[in-house]
């Protein structure tokens, strides 16, 4: 009969081969807040990556300006607390600007804020509280087709009308302006002259669901480094020492 300690050792070895899952169980698990305004497909991709261990983090709060949107409903189905911002008198979980920052930073101890299709401007106080710790995803290759008015299908219409041959999502850090923070990741897709905006949107969205979880996982693992020019990059665990 095989000793129990050998069986336990073999079980531990099996878990180590699934490195992502070990990370998800580690004490360093990061606390994430996700902001949504619509269906929340990027939020779902991030949450699923947290659950299956690809991201060493946990979504502890969802904030939306549209209670009842797809992302809000998904959060409630998953048992994730939801809050409304900006403040709506008809919504009991509404918070104002000061309450939002205090709640995330001091009450929930959120490490990173992730904007996933959130269409309202983030208050400056919160941006300052999460400097280099707040990400956004944009459905075009910034700095092109970004800024006020460029969101959703409007972005893809502009790409098609400009005759672009490539497009793709961008993940960037958030600053005080729309879509102007430092870029940390991009992926590209082909755009054909016969494409409709909806066809481009579907192609880009598929890449968003790959890119955003990858960047979030890198951030939670401490593998996002900044060079002397203030440009972020994703490093391997061995490369990151070169940037410290």
DSSP strand tally: 11
Strand content: 15-25%
Q: Determine the mean pLDDT.
A: 88
Indicate the low-confidence ranges by residue numbers.
1-27
The neighbouring-strand order within the major sheet is 3-2-1-4-5-7-8
Separation of the first and last Cα atoms? 51 Å
> Approximately how much helix is present in the residues?
25-40%
Radius of gyration: 19 Å
User: How many helices?
Assistant: 8
> Based on CA inertia axes, which overall geometry fits?
globular
Topology pattern, helix = H, strand = E:
HHEHEHEHEHEHEEEEHEE
Main beta sheet: 7 strands, mixed
By secondary-structure content and strand pairing, the structural class works out as alpha/beta
Write the SSE topology:
Elements: H1 4-17, H2 19-24, E1 30-36, H3 41-51, E2 57-64, H4 70-77, E3 82-84, H5 97-107, E4 112-115, H6 124-129, E5 134-138, H7 153-161, E6 166-167, E7 170-173, E8 183-186, E9 189-190, H8 197-220, E10 224-226, E11 232-234
Parallel strand pairs: 1-2, 1-4, 2-3, 4-5
Antiparallel strand pairs: 5-7, 6-9, 7-8, 10-11
